[in-house]
Specification:
The chain is about 45% helix and about 15% strand. By secondary structure, it is of the alpha/beta class. It has a six-stranded parallel β-sheet with strand order 1-11-10-9-12-13, sandwiched between helices. Helix 2 crosses helix 3, helix 2 (about 30-45) packs across helix 8 and helix 15 (about 400-415) packs antiparallel against helix 16 (about 420-430). The longest helix has 19 residues, at about 80-100. It is globular and about 85 Å long.
Length: about 425
């Protein structure tokens, strides 16, 4: 990886390189997606089945479209019992963490006739998209479904592509069952997003769609946003580690690799005050990569979107971190909690030498669905908030309304909205 010394010029170049990496060449993909969305909206199941057969090779019909209880039982029999126990343990920790995020409705009377408050309700139904093939990660199934369950969503509908034989990966099915999916449909791609957004004869329309996917899924989600809500359009994974002289180069290298192995567009950046650590990591990271299964992906990611930045002090490191706004931030320093006052933008923050990023991916409890591509400046991790809605509550007595009546009418009239003013006026005149 390139080792650079930080200055405003280098920092700006690095930030631009990272934030522009996820701008995929869409080509005619949006046109294809638009056609699929239109067909499914107009033709329902017929189009859904046709596209599934065309793209996935699965001859789907209304009789084999839904995952059965027998298939879920079979899935458990096909996977290692230890993995099942691990997923259950992870699910318990994820659920416990998200339970702490729950909000309560509230009412606040002022004793003078005013009652203001907020009513919180879960979404009625949510669609969870789960990729198939090599991108099928049971941990993401848990992370997307469990917060919805904790929030009290009435119906959680999962869609995931099946293989040509109509089978869904057993790990995916077990994770979905553990997490609490209510129904699982064997369909993927933009056609699945269309079905969740518009509804078909078999798939009910949902209020929100969450979950990652390829460019077809991402563009489909973006296109239906507004018709339904979505979580986000996720970009490539990224990690940034801020380290001082106390950091272990073996640990830091392993942490950077943990994200570089996702794909060639993943980003792994080290920002450090120690020139010695920078040189050691630059050697160690390639030694470790050589031993790993995804070596080629790791090396491509490190060469194109990796980097080591030398800074004069930790405050400068935090300043560059805030500009990049990383998905994952590792604070591999002697006193990590002391840096929190400087950190403004990060999806998840891993503090200390023994808090590696994979801890958050699997077992810690906080959600691993995080903002990417610099969007940690204004987006948050997936949470209970993604599965609820809020209504404002307003109740005024006659006296309380009359006390503000003239002010309301004055405000409305200043905006030329005499009908608004009249709604107050008729009450004041009646007395």
């Amino acid at each position: 990886m390139e080792i650079i010394r930080y200055d405003d010029k280098n920092g700006k170049k690095l930030t631009e390189r990272l934030l522009n990496r996820s701008k995929q060449n869409e080509g005619n993909v949006q046109e294809i997606v638009d056609g699929i969305l239109k067909d499914v909206r107009e033709k329902g199941d017929r189009a859904l089945f046709e596209y599934t057969k065309k793209f996935d090779g699965f001859d789907v019909n209304s009789g084999n479209f839904v995952v059965t209880e027998e298939e879920i039982k079979e899935a458990y029999s096909l996977i290692d019992g230890r993995l099942v126990n691990i997923m259950k343990k992870a699910a318990e920790r994820i659920s416990a963490y998200h339970q702490k995020q729950k909000l309560n409705s509230w009412f606040e009377p002022d004793g003078k006739g005013e009652i203001l408050g907020q009513l919180i309700r879960p979404l009625e139904n949510v669609g969870v998209y789960v990729p198939g093939g090599k991108a099928a990660y049971p941990s993401s199934v848990l992370m997307n479904i469990i917060p919805a369950k904790v929030a009290g969503v009435n119906k959680i509908i999962m869609t995931t592509p099946a293989g040509k034989d109509g089978k869904v990966p057993p790990n995916t099915l077990a994770a979905a069952d553990i997490a609490g999916a209510d129904v699982i449909f064997k369909v993927g791609g933009a056609q699945a997003i269309a079905a969740l957004a518009y509804g078909t004869e078999s798939v009910p329309a949902v209020d929100k769609i969450v979950g990652p996917g390829n460019i077809f899924v991402a563009l489909a989600k973006r296109s239906v946003y507004g018709y339904v809500n979505i979580d986000s359009v996720a970009g490539p994974s990224e990690i940034l580690v801020v380290a001082d002289e106390t950091a272990d180069p073996v640990f830091v290298s392993a942490d950077l690799i943990s994200q570089a192995e996702h794909d060639e567009l993943a980003s792994a950046i080290l920002i450090t005050t120690s020139e010695k650590l920078a040189e050691e990591v630059n050697e160690e990271i390639y030694r470790q990569a050589e031993r790993l299964e995804r070596k080629e992906i790791i090396l491509s990611s490190l060469e194109n979107y990796g980097g080591i930045v030398l800074v004069s002090d930790i405050e400068e490191a935090c300043s560059l971190t805030n500009k990049i706004a990383p998905e994952h931030l590792g604070l591999s320093v002697k006193e990590p909690f002391s840096l929190l006052r400087y950190i403004k933008n990060a999806g998840a923050i891993f503090m200390g030498h023994y808090s590696p990023e994979p801890l958050g991916d699997y077992m810690a409890g906080p959600n691993h669905v995080l903002p990417t591509g610099g969007t940690a400046r204004f987006f948050s991790p997936l949470s209970i908030d993604d599965y609820i809605k809020k209504s404002s509550l307003i109740s005024f007595s006659k006296d309380a309304l009359f006390n503000l009546g003239d002010d309301i009418m004055g405000f409305a009239e200043s905006e030329g909205l005499t009908g608004h003013a009249n709604s107050i006026k008729v009450r004041l005149e009646k007395g």
